[in-house]
Structure prediction request, 241 residues.
Amino acid sequence: MKYELPTKATRETLNIDVREVEAMLQGTAIKIPPFPEAMLTLKDGRTLYIREAKMEEVPAMLEYMERLMKVEHDFYDIVGARVYSEILGWKRKRLKDPYTLVGLIDGEWVGFANGRLMSEDINISLHTMALARGGRIGAAMYYAKAYYGFEIIGSKEWWATYESYNGWYRWGLGMAQPSYPWPDVQHELGGARVYYVTKKYWDSTVKDYVRQMVGNDLNFEVTDEVRKANETFRVPEELLV
Prediction:
């Protein structure tokens, strides 16, 4: 777009270093404390190792999500597409203040959870996924990221929405989450209804509910044995959905 100048300019052409543009596009980041690695004994006895995802793992994660996009039931296609864009947004620095957690069992990627900070007070829950059956891996990953948000980051509110009926049933209904007036307040995932949990509600009710569902608490004293068993990152060969 070009307008005629309202006054004479000494220089009519400006050369801009794109690094300065990038500073505007990224914005100022909130300093987020790292997620400390953790392990958790699942209900079926397996040990789930949870840590932050690594940037070098992104290509393998994107390849998996590409396959998930083609699954046309239970909203896996749209979840796959959205998670793909969120992982890529993290890599390309086009997602504000994100965090990405992976769950591993003997090096195999079996769980995923991510979100981002809207502000220092509001934590946006994006997606939580189990990539393998059994043991309530999805619940464990949800518990890990909610614990991270409230107990480590120090968020005051947790905002979520649901694409699938199962997700709404398990978390929206299961945690008796209230919602903000819609459409006045909308979640960024498609402008859907915002379901929320406050820190007070987390402390009084939700934390214990999810912990009971998982069956065990997070253990941040990860053993050398568990760490060694998960040195590699391996994407599942099959889509178990």
